[in-house]
Amino acid sequence: MVTPLQRFKRAVEFMRDHEKAGFHQEAMLLSEAFARSAKSGINVINLANTAMQNKIAKNRQLLTSVVQTILLCGRQNIALRGHRDDGKLLFTRETSTSCNQEGNFRELLRFRVQSGDTVLASHFSAGPGNATMISKTTQNDLIQICGQLLVEKIVAEVKEVKYFAIQADETTDVSTKEQVSLLLRYATKHSIAEAFVGFMDVTSTTGCTLADALWKWVSDIGLDPMDIRGQGYDGASNMSGSRQGVQALIMARNPQAVYTHCCSHVLNLVIVKSCSLPAIRNMFGTVQKVAVFFGESAKRMAYLETAIDGYDSVSITHKRLKKHCQTRWVEQADALLVFLELYDATVDALRSRALNERDTNTSSAANVLHSAITEFSFIVAVAITSSLLNYTKPLSVKLQQTGLDLCKAMNEVNDVMKILQNLREKTEASMEQDKGNEVDDVLEAAEQDTVFRYDAVYQSAVETAARHNTEPSMPRLCAKQVHRSNAAATDPKLYYRQAVYFPFLDHLLQGLHDRFGPVQQQIALASKLVPAVMVGEAPLSSSEQKKLVDAFPDMPSPQSFAAEYHRWFFRWKKCPADAAREASFTAFLQADDDLYPNIHTVLLISATRPSSTAGNERSFSALKRLKTYLRSTMTEERLTGLALMHIHRDVHIDAETVIDRFSQLGPHRLAFL
After folding, report:
1. Three-state secondary structure call for residue 295
2. Among 283, 329, 552, 575, which lies 20 to 30 A Cα-Cα from 478?
C-alpha cells in the first residue's frame, strides 16, 4: 500500500478492487508459496516459478478461447464489432444494463462462458478491467497475426519451387478506396495453385506507382522479385502498356517476368465486339428492358409468375427473368437462355398488362415491349445469338478455372474456333445445295449434323413466331441503306443468314483469331514439349531447340537439352495413349527432375505463367462481402487479415503459434511466455 485508507465509507468497494488487482493476486501466490515452503522445507523460488508457470498456462488458455472465436468469425465472414462493444463483458443479457447492441465477437464469448468455459468466466468476473484481451486493439493484433501466418505458409510453399507469377487487379471498395488484389501463382507437388495474399490500398494507379508497389510488396513478404516468371493483369493501359505499363516496367527489371493478358477478359472483348452488330445489340437492349420492366415491380412480377404457372412446369425451371451485365458474358448467355425458356409466358404477361393495366404508363410500356419481342427480326436474333453463345459460354467458364495453364486454355479456344469454322462451312455447303450446285463431301458432312446448322436455328425461330401469330418477314430493301443491313435476299431465311448469322459468326471467328493469336505464338515453342502435342508433330529442329534454350535461361544444364529432348520424345512416342492424357503444361509432374531437369524447368515455368485473373475477381467478391457500408471504416491491415482468413478458410492456423507471436508484440499486462 502506498497511501493509507481514509475513505472508510467505500472501504468494501476499495478492498474488492484491490483483491482483483494483478499485483495483489501475484502477491497472494507468492505468500501461499512461502507458506507451503515453510511447512515442507522446499525452496520458495521453485514454488514461485511453478505458480508463475500455472498462471501463464491459464493466461494462454484464456487467449486461446479469444483466438478461436476470432478465427470462427474470420472464416465465416461474421462481423466482430457492434455498435458499442467496449467495457466489461457480462455473462447474461439479463444482467446487462446496456441497451446497445453488442458485437458478434462479444456475444460468442458470452456463449462460450455459458457453455462451460470456466477460464473465460473467471477472467471476466475477477480479472483486471484493463487486461480483458477483447478490446479492438487486441482484435486487430490477433487478426493481423493470423493473416501473417497464412501468408508465411504460402511463401514457404513458393520457396520450395522458387519460381512464381504475380496476378493483380484493381477495384474500388464501398469506402471509395482503390484496392489492388494480389495473388501468387506457383506449382505444387500435385497441381498449380493460385493463392490470395492480400489487398493493397493505393492512392495512384499509374503504371510506375503500381510497378514500384508490386516490386516492394514481393520483397516485403520474403520473396525475390527476380524469381517472378509471369505476370497476369487485365488489358487496362496502366497495366498492359508496352512502355509505361506495369508489365513493361517490371519486365525492364526482370525480363523473364512474361506478361499474359487475362484470357477470360480477351474472350469477353471478342464477344463484346461481336455483339456490337446492330441487330444483336438492339436485341440485347430489348431483353434487358423486359427484365427491368418486370423486376422493378412486385405486381408485374406476380403477373409474370402467374403466366409461367400456366405452362408445363417440367420444361420450365426458372420463375423470373435475369438481368445481364455488360461485362460478365456468362451471365449474358444465361440471361438469354432464361429469356428463351420464359418467352411464351413473357409474351402472355406483356399482352395482359397492355390490355388490362389501368396505369397508362405501365400499359403503354407493356404494349411497346410486347410489339418489340414479337417482331420476327427480334425472334431470329435471339435464336441465332443464343445458339452461337452456347459455344462460348462453357469456354468462358473454363477460362476462369483455378490453376488452368495457357496450353490447356489455348486448346479449348482452338476447339471452339474449329467448331465455329465448321459451322460456317456447313452453312455455306447448305447454301450451295439451295442453289443446286454440287458440294460432294462438304454437303455430306453437313447433312450428318443438321441440328447445329443455320437451317435448324431458323426453323426454331419460325416455330416460336408461329405460336404468337408472327409471320416470317424481313425489312424492306432499298438502293442505299446506312442505318441497318441491306443484304440482297429473296426471302427472310436468306436475308437473316446474310444479315445476322454470317456477320455474327465471322466477327466471333475473326476476334478469336486476332486476340488469341499472340498468346498462341507466346507458348508455341514450349507447348511442343507437352506430350499430347509432341506425338502429333515432327520433332523440334535444331534451330527450334536453340530458340527454346534462349527463351528459358533458367535451364539448369542447357548444353544437354538436345539429348534430354530426344529421350523425352522417345518416351512418349512409344506410348501415344499415355501421351494423349498429358495435354497441358502440368506435364512437368511427369518429367522427373533428375532425368529431365531442363524439360521439367521449362514446363514448370510455362505452367506457372497465368492464363486469367479470375482469382482476383473472386477476391473482389470476398471484399464485397467483407467491407459493407456498415463496416466501411476498417483499417487496411484488419481488412487483409479478415480476407485471408475468409478466403483460406480451409488452412489450419495454430492458436498456440498465434499466442507466441502476440506475446512478442510488446509488453502485456498478462504474461504469456
Report:
1. helix
2. 283
Q: Is the dihedral of CA 486, 487, 490, 493 positive or negative?
A: negative
The answer to whether 224 and 603 have CB atoms below 8 angstroms apart is: no
Cell numbers for 331, please give them.
Answer: 451471365
Whether residue 426 sits in one domain with residue 500: yes
Residues 604 and 618 in one domain: no
> How far is 645 from 411, CA to CA, in rounded Å?
35
Name residues whose C-beta falls within 8 Å of residue 591's C-beta, 6 or more positions apart in sequence: 568, 599, 600, 603
Tell me the C-alpha distance between 190 and 450, whole Å. 43
| Cell 515442507 belongs to residue | 40
Dihedrals phi, psi of 21, to nearest 5 degrees: -65, 145
The C-alpha cell at 3 is: 497511501
Please write the tens of the pLDDT for every residue from 56-94: 888 889 899 999 999 999 999 999 988 777 777 766 555
Torsion 512-513-518-520 (CA) sign? positive
Concatenated DSSP letters for 360-375?
A: HHHHHHHHHHHHHHTS
The last residue of a domain, from among 83, 99, 133: 133
Q: What total of structural domains would you count in the chain?
A: 4
* Listed residue (250, 211, 210) closest to 230, CA to CA: 250
Start-to-end C-alpha separation, the chain: 28
The CA–CA distances, whole Å, from 550 to 119, 256, 496, 525, 546 equal 64, 11, 52, 11, 6
Q: What band does 442 get if pLDDT is binned at 50, 70 and 90? A: very low
Report yes or no: 229 and 178 within 8 Å, Cβ to Cβ: no
Q: Let me know whether 230 and 335 are in one domain.
A: no
The range of the structural domain enclosing residue 567 comes to: 524-608
91 lies in some domain: yes
- Cα-atom radius of gyration of the chain, to the nearest Å? 34
Tell which residue, 223, 220, 104, has the closest CA to residue 155: 223
Distances (CA, A) of 623 to 85, 589, 612: 24, 34, 19
CB atoms within 10 A of CB 538: 8
Query: How, if at all, do strands 164-172 and 258-261 pair?
Result: unpaired
CA 107 to chain centre: 32
pLDDT tens for 121-178 read 888 887 777 788 888 899 999 999 999 999 999 999 999 999 999 999 999 999 999 9
Residues β-bridged to residue 433: none
- The pTM of the full predicted model, rounded to 2 decimals, is 0.84
Minimal CA–CA distance to 169: which of 641, 607, 620, 516? Answer: 620
Residue at 2 is within a domain: no
| DSSP summary character for residue 180 | E
673 within some domain:
no
Cα–Cα distance for residue pair 404/611, rounded to 1 Å? 6
**Residue 580, Cβ neighbours under 10 Å: how many?**
13
Phi, psi of 346 (to 5 degrees): -65, -40
Among residues 646, 593, 606, the alpha carbon closest in space to that of 192 is found at 606
Pairing of strands 164-172, 228-233: parallel
15 and 121 part of one domain: yes
